[in-house]
Amino acid sequence: MSLLIKNGYVVTPEKTTIADLYVENDTIAVIGESLTQRADKSIDASGNYVIPGGIDVHTHLEAPVGGTVSSDDFETGTRAAAFGGTTCIIDFATQSKGQSLHEAYELWRKKGAKAALDYGLHMIVVDIGEGRIEELDDLVEEGVTSFKLFTAYPGALMVDDATILQVMLRAGKKGALVAVHAENGSAIEYLVRKALLGGRTAPIEHALTRPAIAEAEAVHRVIALAQIADVPLYIVHVSCEESLEEMRRARQKGIAVFGETCPQYLLLTQEYLKRPNFEGAKFVLTPPLRGYADQEALWKGLQSDDLQVVSTDHCPFLFETQKRAGLNDFTKIPNGGPGIENRLQLLYHYGVNQGRFSINRWVELVAANPAKLFGLYPKKGVLRVGSDADIVIWNPNRKHTISAASHHMRVDYSMYEGLEVKGNAETVISRGETIVDQNTWSAKPGRGKYLKRSSFAGAWSTWK
């Protein structure tokens, strides 16, 4: 199967040029001007941008959280992602206490068998007892080249500093990257107990008991541990100015600290958690939403490259059933929100259209940098001869109103309900196959491939 894309504005992090792309089977074969190759299908992209498919490196599909399971599985979640211009995800396999890392990995591979898009896996480590630390080596050989640790959720996911240090040292030897969810879980647990004893049970208490300083303290601490281990560090879902400042100081000292933020932290505030009729529960996610000053700081962090990636932390729960479990106790509201479909739309509209950064930086944040940091580059995240033909034709003039009535995520609300964005995916191509065209879906579940990712040590050579 061959494909010729003509006359589009081809966007890379470095430049934007009018060019043609010729695809053979699943690979970009030629990029140039006025190509004349005969193809099975031809697309005229005149007036549109041609970009590499987005890569979302932080999703939680069919994930167990607080006694329930996130409402999107690998079939529905990857389908929704594709409609928004994302062609690849990295999800989180989660070890349970007492479980081997291999067992967790195999369980998530079975879940991933339904994926419509190519996918990789991180591993969440919660238990390194009984020699399990050695399993990290084997997982790296399986292409799991990043490991996530939590300083939050005591009794469930939280690990102590010694465990974090051990994993960092072991991962560093294999060239793997350690990612951390950074919040001071013990302090937060105390504040939560205090709120409940005082009869404070509404959704807003979720934000009030998880102050920004509790995030920043944990960011500072794990940076120190990364210094001891002499390994790079990736901070997930940075939500506040204080955390960003900790990362900035570390980077100024030459410490390899990377980070992501998410659209919700750029566009929403904790005031949403005060909405009446329990509507605030829709916005209970962790870390919590912050304030306007934090939003502005995060946008500046993206501009200055103190933050390198925008992901979604997509972890949806049905409002009418799952979220309402916490009607009388905010701690029982499952933490997480939907967004896998809207990432590129929101970042393009509020980033590019509003002059916060260029379209080239947009492509860097949503595709190239995720691929480089997580061992997918240059097969993914770039339009280059020899790269996978993961291509999005982006219509910069197409208006779209975000709504639960029209989105493709399996969830009954949108965090961005009613927002009108300008710029949207017109055609989405995954490994040379057109899977979305003019809002029509044509892919089969299970067509996605598991991606064995290269090590961060190898990816480092592709970095700036």
CATH topology, by name, is: TIM Barrel
Task: Identify the overall geometry.
Answer: globular
Kindly report how far apart the N and C termini lie: 35 Å
Number of strands: 19
3D structure, described in words:
By secondary structure, the chain is α/β, with parallel strands linked by helices. It has a single domain, classed as TIM Barrel, CATH 3.20.20.140. It is built from 13 helices and 19 strands. It has helices at 74-83, 101-112, 135-141, 161-173, 185-197, 204-208, 212-229, 241-252, 263-267, 292-304, 343-353, 359-373, 456-460, and strands spanning 2-11, 16-24, 27-32, 41-44, 49-52, 54-59, 64-65, 68-69, 86-94, 118-124, 146-150, 177-181, 233-235, 257-261, 309-310, 391-401, 420-430, 433-437, 440-441. The strands form three sheets. Strands 1, 2, 3, 4, 5, 16, 17, 18 and 19 form a nine-stranded mixed β-sheet that branches. Strand 11 (146-150), helix 4 (161-173) and strand 12 (177-181) form a beta-alpha-beta unit. Helix 4 packs across helix 7 and helix 7 (212-229) packs parallel to helix 8. It is globular, with a radius of gyration of 21 Å. The two termini are 35 Å apart.
